[in-house]
Structures are given as C-alpha cells and as structure tokens.
Amino acid sequence: MKTFVLDASAVLRFTDKEPGYVRVRDLFEAAARGELRLLISAVNWGEIVHAVAKRCGAQSQHILDNLASLPMTIVPVDAGAASRAAHFKLLYGVPYADAFAGALAVAPSGGGNSTQAATLVTADNDFRGIPGGKIDVEFLPGK
Question: Which of 15, 41, 48, 86 could form a disulfide with 100 if both were Cys (CB 3.0 to 4.6 A apart)?
Fold first, then answer.
C-alpha cells in the first residue's frame, strides 16, 4: 500500500482551501477508502495546532477535532525520530520541524531500514533544494 506523509503546509492548504487543497482532500478520501496510508509527524501536527489556534481562536478546537478525525496517523516522536530529523536537517538544510516530515517520508516505519519510502506532500519550498532521487516529494501548487 502506498504511503504519503503530509507536512503542516499541506494540511493547512486543505483547511484554508488554498491551491492544492483538492489534492490533499483527494488523499484523505483515498485513505478513508483504504487505498493508501497517510502519516504526519507529531511535530508537524503541533505546527498545525499552533497555526489554527493563532488564526481561529475560540473556534480552533472544533477545527482541530475535525482534522484529528481524518484518516491520517499522527506518528509519535521519540529519541530515534528526533535523531533521524536532525540528520535529515544536517544533510539537506531544511528547518528542523520540516526535517521531521522529510525523515518520516524516508523511513515511514520509524527506522532507517525501511525498504519502501513514502511520498512527502508539501507546499514548502524548503524541500526544493534536496537533490533528485533522495526523497520522493510531491509539491502542491504555489499560492
């Protein structure tokens, strides 16, 4: 089964109905049908919680509850995940929070020996500097 990793920018495009939200919606629908697996790092989930709370104030909990009910697995962060993200940042120069999404896409099973990497779905241009073939990235359209 194909696995996709969503970063915070992809989910926020969905919530804000910005360019690319239809693609993210389609991924959620396919995951609900059991056709693919969606993952998001707990660190990137935290970025979403912060952004929604900042923008929406009192309504944020309702929005976050709806997002949490979508068919995506929030992957916990432990010392191993933090180390993989740190190495990803070191190799590719992306911001540390983004490195959690990148590292999760490289090893979606949580270890360094994954034989099948996931596709990272993002609107974040920080991933554009990663050399081709190192990570499978699907970029959402620009605003």
Answer: 41
What domains, with CATH codes, occur in the chain?
3-139 (3.40.50.1010)
DSSP-assigned letters across all residues of 85-100: HHHHHHHH---HHHHH
Phi-psi region at 133: left, alpha or beta (left = phi > 0; alpha = psi -120 to 50): left
For 106, the token pair is 């490289």
- 18-59 residue pLDDT tens: 999 999 999 999 999 999 999 999 999 999 999 999 999 889
Q: Provide the CA 107 distance to its chain's centre, in angstroms.
A: 13
DSSP 107: -
What the block records as the tokens of 141 is 């359209």
Assess whether pLDDT exceeds 50 at residue 113: no
> What b-and-e string marks burial along 85-120, b requiring 16 or more CB atoms within 10 Å of the CB?
beebbeebebeebbbbbbbbbbbbeeeeeeeebbbb
Cα–Cα nearest to 89, from 127, 51, 43: 127
- pTM for the complete prediction? 0.93
